[in-house]
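Handout, page 2. Input:
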Amino acid sequence: MSESTQKCPSCTESVPLEYSVCPFCGFGLLEYELKKFAFKPSFKEVFIRLYNFFRYPFKTSEELGVATESKGGNLILLIFSLFLSLRFYFVMFKAGLDYSFLIILGNPEGFHVNISMKLILFFVTLLLMPLVIWIIYKLLFSIGTWLIAKFAAMLGSDASTKQFRTIISYSIAPVAIGEFVGILLTLMGPRGNLGSAAGLSFQAFASFLDNFYSSPIMFVFRILMVIMWVIVIVYASIGLRTMGRMSWITAVLAIVVPIGLFVYFFYLFGMFGGG
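Output:
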């Protein structure tokens, strides 16, 4: 393909740059470029796209490939981060930690302000922790999707990194649902009696976590998350096959290898996320 031609995203034929419609398949090249660089969905449109993606994955993958965006991915990652943060909060609740003590700011015998540790923990869980988790996972998502896109390109994918990120961002929605169910399963988990958090040793809390995540109900949670990741792989493979013009084998391989390693280390091996 020379500098005076472009590749049609639909049929991959070389078309002169001045053409607004592909002469081979009738694909709207001008409309494609306008949507590609100008599409900014509202929150309502994000949820509509999400619903359509899981109901009509082939058709919606074509649309996501044309109108790429990052808003959907950011929103899904934020919801996931909030659920993950709440799950960690309820793990501390199940540990039987006592946060009834106060933090005194100022002179105890003069002007001072008493701040409840429970209040601090609540705001950290709902405000600070989700933001920190979102930043971490956003970084992992950006690096991971870039690596997967390069790996897919080696296997013959025509999809750009931006197209691939859009597809993956919508594909990971089941993982956010899994974290929400994980909150409910956490509340059903075994309860500890660690006492005051002020004098708690790290070893005692680590021992509780080992026992907690070894319980049958948390084993169910890990299996649930593996199932959710399998769903992610299925839909991401559909999207990559549709956008990247790949065979089923190469599309699945490009998704399974990197995501499989992530699931093993973060959920089965228990390094992070699954306990």
